[in-house]
Design a protein that fits this description.
The protein has helices at residues 48-53, 63-68, 128-145, 158-166, 179-191, 208-211, 271-281, 301-310, 313-317, and strands spanning 29-32, 41-44, 106-111, 151-155, 170-173, 218-222, 240-245, 252-258, 285-288. Helices cover 26% and strands 14% of the residues. The chain is built from nine helices and nine strands. Strands 5-4-3-6-8-7-9 form a seven-stranded mixed β-sheet, with helices on both faces.
Length: 319
């Protein structure tokens, strides 16, 4: 057996069920390095007490279980993030510990589509139930990467809204078709808020801005299919658009920008270049960050194969 064992509460399949004979990936806890929030984390092995207190892992997973457990890491919710409600089906939260306070004047927007319709292009590799479980696990990881920043899930159905509550996020119901349209409507809602209104997510986190009832000055838009997301902190800066592109330098995986501007969203093929042009058009500062933990998304069979291939052999085949 490679690495320390996992605990039952943290070792789950992406569909939310405890694996009886499936994979149980032993966690390595990533903690942000000293300095500015959002710095690349330093990997710290679990303490001997953590390793001794956890039961042993189940037997080696089969191919289907390995594909279903593609996310691969497990750990407790980040500080300030509500735990999964015991009254709802357990949702696997696969993310490292996040100890930074994030950006106190920022809120995170995470667009999440109907889980039953998600990741259709992975149908040749995964059956429908495992695709839905994978989508839930990746989205839960991105919610946890928000740390103490409020996480708002942009959605248009009851199932995703209930799921958002269960993982400590606030559902923002937007009945607008299309990713750009839905996110534009969400930005308009945040920008139109008046100072005397209390944010509806005030009790979700212990961020300074949220606890004081202040509305955010910046927004961090993060796609919900980032299986390696660590932290979204340290990206928002005054008067600046910060773009984290995908690994192909074509799409926009994460973007931070000030609220209240006329910045137009251009998600889709070539959005990285389009968003850079839009930042210049708006007269905003532009910075591009290459963040390994955020540049990898899973959307196509090639993405899935690359993600599995780049994981350590022990994580792919063994506990």
């Amino acid at each position: 057996m490679n690495g320390p064992p996992c605990s039952p509460a943290r070792c789950q399949r992406p569909d939310g069920h405890r694996a009886s004979s499936g994979p149980c990936w032993a966690p390595t806890h990533a903690r942000p390095s000293p300095g500015r929030a959002g710095a690349q984390p330093t990997t710290v092995a679990p303490t001997p007490q953590e390793a001794q207190s956890a039961p042993s892992c189940p037997s080696k997973p089969g191919p289907a279980d390995r594909a279903a457990s593609v996310i691969g890491r497990c750990s407790p919710p980040a500080p300030g993030r509500a735990a999964v409600s015991p009254s709802r089906p357990s949702v696997p939260i696969h993310s490292p510990r996040v100890t930074d306070r994030g950006d106190p004047e920022a809120v995170v927007l995470i667009p999440v589509k109907d889980f039953e319709l998600a990741k259709g292009r992975l149908a040749p590799q995964l059956p429908a139930g495992e695709r839905a479980g994978l989508a839930r696990s990746m989205a839960a990881r991105v919610v946890q990467a928000a740390g103490r920043m409020p996480a708002l899930v942009v959605c248009d159905n009851d199932e995703v809204a209930e799921w958002a509550h269960s993982v400590g996020a606030h559902p923002l119901r937007i009945e607008v078709r299309g990713l750009n349209g839905a996110l534009t409507a969400a930005l308009a809602q945040l920008s139109a808020a008046t100072p005397d209104e209390s944010p509806p997510w005030r009790d979700l986190t212990d961020s300074e801005a949220a606890s004081d009832g202040r509305w955010p000055q910046h927004v961090v838009i993060a796609h919900g299919d980032l299986p390696r997301a660590e932290t979204l902190g340290g990206l928002a800066e005054p008067g600046t658009v910060t773009i984290v592109p995908d690994r192909h330098l074509d799409g926009t995986n994460v973007m931070a920008l000030p609220l209240g501007t006329d910045f137009e969203l251009h998600y889709g093929p070539g959005s990285f270049g389009a968003h850079r042009d839009e930042a210049r058009r708006c007269g905003l500062n532009l910075q591009v960050r290459r963040v390994a933990a955020l540049e990898f998304d899973i959307d196509t069979p090639d993405d899935l194969a690359a993600h599995l291939a780049e994981r350590p052999p022990a994580a792919r085949n063994d506990c």
